[in-house]
Amino acid sequence: RGGAGGNSRESASGKSYPGVYRFGAAYNDGKIPDARVTMSKGNYLIYSMASQALFRTAAGSNRGLDATFGFDWSPGDVTRQNFQMTAGARFNAPFASREKDGFACGFVYSRISDPYRRFGALLGEPPLGSEKAFELNYSLQVTPYFLLQPTFQYYVDVGANPALRNAPIFGIRTKIEL
């Protein structure tokens, strides 16, 4: 995905509020099977993403609140999941003594396109709809080279199928930089 832009505004207090905004499109001119199982003459995607610092505790500090929003769309006759929206917030350094830690929450909404919704009904299942995912995580910088990130995710209508049970997921991500 391409296209980039940036923004940084400074308040009267000297605090900096950087932001990144991206808009773009991608095109695939290959033959792709569509919902009717015929070959389409390509597919495309339109997207946007915004990440913006909203609040800083002090000038020159990264400690504070950031927000992010993204969206992408493709034609529904070729793409099964043709719309997705993401939104989230992150508090950098939630504790003054832990300047590299972060607490984040997010939401992802993924929608199945109209032609693909009916596939479940052909098998006696309810029509497909959308999947919603919620996430909470805490990024703990244990040492300068080791990050530990426990996460909790909760999925509603897993796989966009309202007949499936919701799914809670717990996980841990680690990162080692040598």
Order of helices and strands: EEEEEEEEHHEEE
Number of helices: 2
- Which sequence of strands runs across the widest sheet? 1-2-5-6-7-8-9-10-11
- Tell me the span between the first and last alpha carbons: 29 Å
Our Rg estimate from Cα atoms comes to 20 Å
Topology:
Blueprint: E1 5-10, E2 16-28, E3 32-33, E4 39-40, E5 43-56, E6 64-73, E7 81-92, E8 102-112, H1 114-117, H2 119-122, E9 130-143, E10 146-156, E11 167-176
Antiparallel strand pairs: 1-2, 2-5, 3-4, 5-6, 6-7, 7-8, 8-9, 9-10, 10-11
General description of the model:
The chain has helices spanning 114-117, 119-122, and strands at 5-10, 16-28, 32-33, 39-40, 43-56, 64-73, 81-92, 102-112, 130-143, 146-156, 167-176. It has 178 residues and is mainly beta. The strands form two sheets. Strands 1-2-5-6-7-8-9-10-11 form a nine-stranded antiparallel β-sheet. A two-stranded antiparallel ribbon has the order 3-4. The longest helix is centred in the middle third of the chain and has 4 residues, at 114-117. The chain is globular, with a radius of gyration of 20 Å. The two termini are 29 Å apart.
Sum up the structure in keywords.
11 strands, 2 helices, single chain, mainly beta, two-stranded antiparallel sheet, 178 residues, 4% helix, nine-stranded antiparallel β-sheet
Question: What does this entry show, briefly?
Answer:
The chain is built from two helices and eleven strands, in the order E-E-E-E-E-E-E-E-H-H-E-E-E.
